[in-house]
């Protein structure tokens, strides 16, 4: 973290970081991010990958969109979602890989990444 921040700035920063991570603590939201990590998908495609109800997926997508974690593009009546920044994508991939290693899934994660 940056030592040049004042106490109020540091406090505001930590609160914002905590809010950001609180959005990522819900498994369905992580599944959504995983579903769109290699390119944009429609809500219907995300629902299929996440294996949840459309209402729940739409609610979770909306939360991620409002937090600027997801971006969207409209094409006619279809809406496509993608991860809004490379930094978010990189962070999610790094955290998932680290936890997979701790759980002993590292070989499976490498095999999946190689075939994607």
Supply the CATH superfamily name of the largest domain.
Winged helix-like DNA-binding domain superfamily/Winged helix DNA-binding domain
Task: Give the biggest beta sheet.
Answer: 3 strands, antiparallel
The tally of structural domains comes to 2
Structural class: alpha+beta
DSSP summary: helix tally: 6
Tell me the β content.
Answer: 5-15%
Biggest sheet strand order reads 1-3-2
Short account of what is shown:
This protein folds into two domains: 84 residues, Arc Repressor Mutant, subunit A; 32 residues, no CATH class. Helices cover 64% and strands 12% of the residues.
Task: Annotate the secondary structure layout.
Layout: H1 7-23, H2 27-35, E1 41-42, H3 43-50, H4 54-66, E2 70-75, E3 78-83, H5 86-102, H6 106-115
Antiparallel strand pairs: 1-3, 2-3
Helix pairs in contact: 2-3
Description of the structure:
The model has no long low-confidence stretch (mean pLDDT 88). The protein is of the alpha+beta class. The protein has a three-stranded antiparallel sheet. The protein is 64% helix and 12% strand. The chain folds into two domains: 1-84, Arc Repressor Mutant, subunit A; 85-116, no CATH class. Helix 2 packs across helix 3 (43-50). The protein is built from six helices and three strands; from the N terminus they run H-H-E-H-H-E-E-H-H. The radius of gyration is 16 Å and the shape is globular.
